[in-house]
Each structure stands twice: as structure tokens, then as C-alpha cells.
Amino acid sequence: MTEVKAFKALSLLTTIGVLVVAACTIQLRGGDESPAPPKAERTTDVISSDLARCRSVTAEETAGYQHCRQVWAENRRRFFGKKNGPTDPGRDDSAGLAPGPKDQSRIPQGYPQPGTPEASKP
């Protein structure tokens, strides 16, 4: 019978210990009140809603199209991680996207220049 009493005491102590740990965990977890989202998260929500609205804008809708171009430029800037701030909406970025000439200094001297594939065909 002493083993049964010892088992009951051990199970009672274990149950009390689990309940104390659970109560402390609930107390330390904090309340259910959620703080206001940070400014970056609110900005992201605004930009994502603007991007969703701009998916249906056509080039004929001039006022909406200009606003959407600014939103798209800001999204590109955030995505690619440029640190220089928002882009100028009046500037055409398509001219700056062309790659520069290739660096020919790494080609060994004395070797024949590679030909175009069409010229080497029989």
C-alpha cells in the first residue's frame, strides 16, 4: 500500500508542477492586446494596396497611370535595395538599363578573335 500512496503523491506533485508552469507561461506571455503595427508594415500595406489597384490601370487613364508609375518605381527601389531615395517620376529609366561595352582587356593577345556563328558555317 505504501507504493500506491507514493505513486499518488508523485502524480499529485507532478500535476501541481505542470499547472504552476502553465500558469507562469500564461502570465509571462502577456495580454491579448496587440500593439500598433510598425510604420514600415503600415507603409507596406499601403504600397501593396496601391500595387493591387494599379494592376488594372491602363495607359489611357492618365492621372491614375502617373500615380501608378510612381508606385511601381518606389516598389522597384525597395525591391532592388537602392539607398538613394525615391526615383524621379519624370525621369525615363529605360535609357539607363542598356549594358555598357564589354571589357576586352581580359582576352589574351595573339589569339584569333572569335567569329560569329553564321560566318563559320559551311
Description:
There is one protein chain. With 122 residues, this protein is mainly α. The chain has a domain at 37-82. It has three helices and no strands. It has helices at residues 2-29, 39-54, 62-80. The longest helix is centred in the N-terminal third of the chain and has 28 residues, at 2-29. It is elongated and about 100 Å long. The protein starts with a helix and ends in a 42-residue tail after the last helix.
Q: What is the fold's blueprint, element by element?
A:
Elements: H1 2-29, H2 39-54, H3 62-80
Helix pairs in contact: 2-3
How many beta-strand runs? 0
Q: Measured on Cα atoms, how large is the radius of gyration?
A: 33 Å
Termini Cα gap: 102 Å
Number of helices: 3
The fraction of residues in strands falls at: under 5%
| Biggest sheet record | none
Overall outline: elongated
Indicate the mean pLDDT. Answer: 75
Note the main attributes of this structure.
3 helices; single chain; mainly alpha; elongated; 52% helix
Task: State the gist of this model.
By secondary structure, the chain is an all-alpha fold.
